[in-house]
Description:
This protein has two helices and no strands. With 79 residues, it is mainly α. The chain is 75% helix and 0% strand. It has one domain (6-77). The chain has helices at 11-25, 34-77.
Amino acid sequence: xxxxxxxxxxxxxxxxxxxxxxxRADPVxxxxxxxxxxxxxxxxxxxxxxxxxxxxDVGVTAAITLDVLLALRRRGGDR
Length: 79
């Protein structure tokens, strides 16, 4: 991976580029069950995201329905 010229980097990016080799030299040890934990959390997050999205969709549908009903009622009251 090529590194952009130092002139193109912000001070924060230059500091990050300087610190990355230190992180590569001293990797964090990983336990044997690390992968299974990450997969379990990812699956849980996927289920929760689907549930929250479904609740949001129901809320949007209810709001649209209420808006349509109120608009029909207002039109019916003009007669």
